[in-house]
Structures are given as C-alpha cells and as structure tokens.
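Q: What would this chain look like folded?
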Amino acid sequence: MDRHSHHSSVSADYRFGLVLPGGGARGAYQVGVLKALAEMLPRRSSNPFSVISGTSAGAINSVVLASRAQLFHVGVAELEYVWRNFKSAQVFRSDTWTMIRNGAHWVLAVATGGLGRSNPLALLDNAPLRKLLKKQINFESIQRSIDKGYIDAVSVTAAGYSSARSVSFYQGSGPVHPWHRVRRSGREEKINVNHLMGSIAVPIVFPPVLIGQEYFGDGAMRQATPLSPAVHLGADRILVIGARNEIPDPEPTVSRDTRYPSLGRVAGYMLDALFMDGLSADLERLTRINLILDQLGEKTVEGDEGDLRTIEAFVMLPSEDIREIAERHVHELPRSVRILLKGLGAMNRGGMQLASYLLFESGYTRELIRLGYRDAMHRREELESFMRGDPVHAPGGIIGWRDLSQEYTARHKILKISGQE
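A: My prediction, written as structure tokens:
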C-alpha cells in the first residue's frame, strides 16, 4: 500500500520522521502543533510520518499517534482530549494523605540513615498514569499500523540504570538492525506500557521501571542524540517539536539582587537541562554534518560505522516563555502539591521552571495547546513547504532554530574541506 496515497500534500520522495522530545506537562505544546498540522492535511489523511520517535512525555504522544496512524486527525484528537482535560491526579497521587505520607517517609529515611528495603523509591507515585495509559492506548494497534503501511517504525527511549546506556526500544518493519554506539543503543521490542512508564520516570520524582532484567528511568537522562533513533530507523527529513523557547534570559547585572538558588530552582534547572540540552547539541551536530557534506558535494558518505547522510529538519519551538504561562496557572495545582513546591522554593518566579514540568492541570495544558497551534499556523507556509518536499535553503538544512541559523550563517566560510575550492 502506498502510505502517501491519503495525503497527497506530503512528498513521497522523503521518509519523514517526527521527533518528540521530553518535557513533562510541556508536552501539551506538541499536541497543539500536531493539531495544526492535521488541519493542513486532507481530512482522511493517514499519518504523514514514516518514523515516529519520542522520549518521556513525547514518547506517550508518539505511541498514541502510532496506534492511530490510519487516521492522523483521529490520533491527534485523542491526544488533545486527554491533554485538554488533564488533572494532576491522573498522573500522580496528589491527595493530602499520600503527600504527607511520602514526605514523612523521606524525612524518616534521611533521619535514620536509611530504611533498608523500605527506602522510598521516589517523591511521587505515578500509578494513576499507568492506569490512564493502559486505558487510553491500544498497544496492539501499533503493529497493525506497521503491517498496513501507515508507519514504518516507532521508537521510545529510556535510560538503563545498570548499563548506564540510553536505549531506544523500537517496533517496526523492514531490515532495521539494532545499533550500538557509545552509551546508546537501539533494541527491537514490542512496545508496551512499561516502556512508556520507564521513559517518563524522571529521576527522584517518579520510580524507575523494570524492563527485562534492568530498571529504566527517564529517556532524556543519557540521550545526547535525540534525533538518532529517527535517523537509524530511516528518516531523512525530520519535524522536531521542542518545548523550550530558546531566547536566553538576560545576563544578571551588578545592581541586581543576587539570591542563592532555592532547591526548587536547582531542580527546575536540572530538568530543563535534562529535557532540552541534548536536542540543542544534536541539532548543532546535525548542522555541521550537513555543511560538511555540502562542501564535499555529496548527500551521503559511506563509513565503517554506517553512512553519513544529509538530514533536513524543521524545528518548532514555543514563541513564548513557558515559565510565564506556568506562573499564570500554578494556583490550579492541588494544595498538597503547592505546599510541596513552596517548601522547595518553586512557587516564585525563580522556581517556575520546575512547576512548568509538573503542572498537569487543564488550564495550563490548554494554553500550551493553543500556543502550539498558533505557532504552527503562524509558520503554515514554511511547514507545508517542508512537508511537500520543497528544497530547504536554511543554513545546514535546519529550519526554525534561530540561534543555529545566525551562528552558522556567520561561520559558513570557516567550514572548508581541504582540497575543496
């Protein structure tokens, strides 16, 4: 079956990949972008992406799309329904008694130097999320989507605590061989709820998950190359939907009141680095490879460890600072969670980074969906052109990452290959 037969506005000359990085509650932004893309395609279109790859919250979005690949707009609509109606209680147990018990458990463990086998596993119990995922996702439909040609592969990444390795679990068709690189690998497995729960298991916050003979945590922990699974699975044009505005904060001034960072601010900083910095580094790496291949006048260079080939990417990032959006909605969190965040120093402007990842409340997620939708529609012509397969003229073949575009436009002449004119 021609997988492009139901969406003629998508080029058949490319194998399109969709990469959805992690971001906790910020994953709602990805849903808004996908909603806009669904409206750009014919109503009965199947999924336009050959390969779908996700990490953490992005892994959940990826698997839902893979399970509903026959009708892209249906998969997106299901995602939107869940994200629009989120409550913290659907993700982790947030009732007052549970929060008090968890807090007391941690205090007792620290005060006594450990409780042996009874040591607390994590700050929050995310059993409700497991229940929600099992209810909402038909994992058997993933293979049907693959068998009918609506997608070629889907990947979910988690981090192994014993192997200290980022593992991308993938399910697909065709001759895709497992890969092994430094601290990362690809492993073919039938994806189930454990893979998702492992991928979203933020260290300390959520408990690790046993998959096979190893415990796994959030996939972003060792994922230095978040584009890699989609590339290994055959994508050569990738839509990336991030969840951080890349406009840097202003530099602190001498007159500014410099305060010692609270535990909440440090935790938010760590989550931000965990979820977002790998994507920035990988896009930089991809840009340099594309520019070098361009200087060589080649699209592909063969090597012992696999081929280097030109990969073009379209990057969607929020146009607004998500911390400011979180600040408007943080009051929606259950009182017990607000007390916990306040104790960590995460209820003020400086600690809003942490809240922005944990704010699974409908007012917040709905505003992020609207932002993603608005951002994608604002760039509609660019996005439609990319999906049609039109030539990419941006530096290094990367559209939409302003910091990279400016940096590599200025440095393009430096990247000269010896012997090239």
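The longest strand covers residues 153-160.
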